């Protein structure tokens, strides 16, 4: 798809470096991801990903939670900001805030997140540290639909990596991040192409319910 009007409009939310945003942008530039990034929003003024987005020519905005009395007020304001761009999908790319129902419910089935663990294991923060502390031999990343439950929405796609002898948080995180950059644009592409949907509180791929996530398989799309 070449014209932006033929692409799925998306809004990206981030809080940090924006490496997943860059991976998405690379796939768009390569012509294999039919989406149009309408805006990049952040809750942090110092987010490097926001600065990169502005230099890349994307609309880049900050909405700081400091000006709101509670999380619900911030979520409502963030929802209004997102609505201005009329996205078909909201992409959480390292957005480090827990979202409440004021934002999640209006975008039910139209919000994806990438999480650095093999969900449902290790929801929340510090996943690499927790994997190492538990002595696990396998780690990975998961793409899931966002629901009210923290990191608890239906998981769509996962990539697995080995935990190697001598790994620390940094080396393990780097290995997982490489897989994030591979599987997140793929899941977004599936959604844009109509292959991936959220119906009746479950993920569906090519019309069938996913009772377990798809597993990325080398350079192939995924093993169903």
Global outline: globular
- Tell me, what is the CATH class of the largest domain? Alpha Beta
Strand order of the largest sheet: 3-2-1-4-5-6-7-11-12
Uncertain runs are none
Largest sheet: 9 strands, mixed
Describe the protein in words:
By secondary structure, the protein is an alpha/beta fold. It is globular and about 45 Å long. It contains six helices and twelve strands. The strands form two sheets. It has a nine-stranded mixed beta sheet, covered by helices on one side. It has a three-stranded antiparallel beta sheet with strand order 8-9-10. The chain folds into two domains: 1-107, Rossmann fold; 114-224, Rossmann fold, CATH 3.40.50. Helices cover 30% and strands 27% of the residues.
Write a brief structural summary.
This protein is of the alpha/beta class and 224 residues long. The protein has helices at 19-29, 48-56, 71-83, 101-104, 127-133, 169-192; strands spanning 8-14, 35-42, 60-62, 89-92, 111-115, 138-145, 155-162, 196-199, 202-205, 208-209, 214-217, 220-223. The strands form 2 sheets. Strands 3-2-1-4-5-6-7-11-12 form a 9-stranded mixed β-sheet, covered by helices on one side. Strands 8-9-10 form a 3-stranded antiparallel β-sheet.
Tags for this model:
Rossmann fold, 9-stranded mixed sheet, 2 domains, alpha/beta
Layout of secondary structure:
Blueprint: E1 8-14, H1 19-29, E2 35-42, H2 48-56, E3 60-62, H3 71-83, E4 89-92, H4 101-104, E5 111-115, H5 127-133, E6 138-145, E7 155-162, H6 169-192, E8 196-199, E9 202-205, E10 208-209, E11 214-217, E12 220-223
Parallel strand pairs: 1-2, 1-4, 2-3, 4-5, 7-11
Antiparallel strand pairs: 5-6, 6-7, 8-9, 9-10, 11-12
Helix pairs in contact: 1-6
């Amino acid at each position: 798809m070449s014209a932006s009007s033929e692409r799925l409009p998306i809004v990206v939310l981030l809080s940090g470096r924006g490496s997943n945003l860059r991976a998405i942008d690379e796939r768009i530039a390569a012509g294999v991801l039919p989406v149009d990034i309408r805006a990049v929003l952040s809750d942090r003024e110092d987010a490097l990903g926001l600065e990169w987005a502005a230099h890349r020519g994307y609309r880049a905005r900050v909405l700081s939670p400091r000006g709101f009395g509670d999380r619900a007020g911030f979520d409502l304001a963030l929802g209004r900001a997102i609505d201005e761009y009329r996205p078909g999908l909201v992409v959480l790319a390292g957005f480090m805030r827990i979202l409440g129902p004021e934002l999640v419910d209006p975008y039910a089935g139209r919000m994806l997140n990438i999480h650095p663990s093999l969900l449902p294991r290790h929801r929340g923060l510090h996943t690499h540290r927790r994997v190492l502390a538990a002595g696990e031999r396998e780690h990975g990343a998961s793409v899931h639909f966002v629901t009210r439950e923290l990191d608890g929405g239906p998981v769509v796609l996962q990539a697995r990596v080995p935990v190697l002898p001598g790994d620390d948080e940094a080396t393990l995180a780097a290995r997982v991040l490489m897989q994030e950059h591979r599987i997140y644009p793929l899941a977004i592409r599936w959604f844009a192409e109509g292959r991936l949907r959220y119906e009746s509180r479950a993920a569906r791929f090519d019309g069938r319910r996913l009772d377990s996530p798809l597993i990325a398989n080398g350079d192939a799309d995924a093993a169903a």
